[in-house]
Structures are given as structure tokens and as C-alpha cells.
Amino acid sequence: MMHIEPDNNSLWVARKTTIPQGKNKWLCANIIYKVITNDNITVKLQTFNFDSITVSISEFQEEFYQLDYDEEYVYSPYYPTCKVSLSEFDIKRISINKLEKHFEKNPSILNAIKKAKQDAYNSKGNQFCITIEKYNDYKINPKSNKLERIGDPIFNRSTRHSPPISKSYTYDKFTKSASFPAPIGIREEDFALPSEQNEILIDLLSQIFSCKNAPVCPEEIKNELGLHFQKDTHICLWCGEIMDLSNINQNYCAEEHSINFCHRIPELGTKKGNVYIGHCSCNREQGGYSEEQRVEQIIRLAKTNPKYKQLILDQLS
Ligand SMILES: [Zn+2]
N or C: lower Cβ tally within 10 Å for the chain? Predict the structure, then answer.
């Protein structure tokens, strides 16, 4: 049990287990919270740039554990490098309400803007994650059928600063975790701290307005958000063509050469510099390989085939 003095708000804590809050929201285990206020009856907590939650002092003492911190970092073994800079808790999400309002009558651009926001701030979906309804049923009546797989450690979409779950983490280990069958984190490649989430958003929005036939973004909004774009300069890195937004449609990848969010190294996920707006067809052609892996494959092919080798040398000379 954790003891805290009244009015002691220099505390960093985390939940021991994931639990549902209401019907649609999970409170994630091991995500870092800062104690905002504590009057010894209730404790107000905030995780990164999210809305604060208030818990009773008894719940706080039973369900949370304390984390070490110093002037620069808070320490947690559940985060990359086992620490998070305290400054990440002061970074607010960028509001793009004005931008969305401005393009509300342009559904294809609005869709691209919304997709950029979703990719910047949310992890990908996971159909195997248990629903809150099924979780509540399970808690009342746990199933003993070992053959039936229930739940998954990965959330079906969550904030990108949730604890990343290593690829080597097994389902068996998950069944023994205190949170089981509730999810406990996000995929490693989806992880990004608030500062990086904001950078990714600005980068993707800037790419949208750097495309050919991009609509005009009002100067005021551009400056306010810190967008940096130059029309007709954004290229699809796979084919080298300038991206043309007149091909964009509401259904992503519904047509050849529609636009998509492409990853230079798919395994690395939506990290700054690794994601760009490119063609859907090009993304499909690259497949699950990184650009470099594709080049290595071509080199291997050319090594045993003089015709290909010559073709490459001629093209590049
Ligand atoms: Zn392309």
C-alpha cells in the first residue's frame, strides 16, 4: 500500500493493472501519471497530455505504485530506455480544429487531415483485444476453457504514449499478467511520446499541402500550426513522382494511385521521417519490406545475372 502525505503532489505513479473506466475507455496499467492534487480524500492524476482522472485515496493507495524521478526524468521499466523526460508531461496536443473547420466542405482533404491526426496520436487497431463488455463478463464468470484464446496484450487503438509491448512478449506470459484479459499496451512500432506525436502531425500536414493541386491553406492557420510547405514539391519516394491530390478520394486505396501513408521501414512504424504520403499502389509494391531491403534484393538478383547488372549500371551512369 502506498502512503502519501496530504498535499504531497510531487509524485509520479502508475496503475498496477488495466481496468475499464465506463463503457468505452480503459485505464492502462503502467502508463505514467503525475499527481496533480491530493487532499487526502481524492487524488487527481494526469497522464501526459490527457484529461485528468480523479480517484479515491483508497483506490490510489491500493491500485497505484510509485515511480522514481529526478529533476529531468521519471523512471519506469515499461518505457524505452526505462525513463521519460518530465518535459513530455507539459506538451499539449496540437489543436487542428481551425484547419478541420476550414476544410469541412472538402471531404477528401478533411479525410486526409483526420487520417494524419489519427496516425500521429493513435496506435493501430487490434481485433483480438477484448471488448470492455466481454471483459466485464469474464470478471464475473472466468472461462476455464484453455483452448479458447481470450483477449490480447495490445489495445485496439490507444494513445501512442501507452507502454510499448515487446514483440517477444508471449500470449502465455499475458495470461499470467495481473491485468489479464485486459490489454496492457501498444505495439512497439506505434510508440511515440507527445513531442514526437506533434512533430509527426505537423510533418504529415505539411506534406499534404506540399502536394500538387493541394488546396490553399490560410496563412494564419499555417503560421499558427507552424506548417512548412511548398506546393508541388512532395514526392512519392517509391516512384519519384510528385504527389497529386486531385487523385485523392474518400476511400483510401479504393483506386490505383490514390494516396496512402507509406512507411520507408515498415517495421519502424509511424516515426518521424519514416512515414510519408505516397501512392497506395507504390506502397503495395514495396510490400512489407523496407526500401533498403528491396535494394538489397535487386543487388542480389543482379549479382548472378549480368544482364540485370548492366541494366542497372546503364540506368545509373
Ligand atoms: Zn508512387
Answer: C
Question: What is the domain partition of the chain in residue ranges?
Answer: 12-89, 97-122+193-286
Query: Over the stretch 291-308, which tens digit does the pLDDT of each residue have?
Result: 999 999 999 999 999 999
The Å distance, Cα 121 to ligand 1 centre, comes to: 25
Q: How far is CA 80 from CA 26, 52, 84, in A?
A: 22, 24, 8
The C-alpha cell that represents 173 in the structure block: 506470459
pLDDT tens-place string over residues 194-229? 999 999 999 999 999 999 999 999 999 999 999 999
**Ion ligand 1 nearby residues (CB, 5 A):** 236, 238-239, 279, 282
Task: State phi, psi for 65 to the nearest 5 degrees.
Answer: -130, 155
CA dihedral over 225, 191, 45, 25, signed as positive or negative: positive
Query: What's the first-to-final CA gap in the chain, in angstroms?
Result: 70
- If you measure from the C-alpha of residue 262 to the centroid of ligand 1, how many angstroms do you get, rounded to a whole number? 10
CB distance 122 to 157 below 8 Å: yes
Give the integer Cα–Cα distance in Å for 65 and 53.
16
- CA 278 to ligand 1 center in whole angstroms: 6
CA 204/CA 194 separation, integer angstroms: 15
CB 194 within 8 A of CB 122: no
pTM attached to this predicted model: 0.89
DSSP per position, 117-145: HHHHHBPPP-TTSPPHHHHHHHHHS----
Distance CA(74)–CA(87), nearest Å, equals 10
Q: Which helix (H) or strand (E) holds 4?
A: none
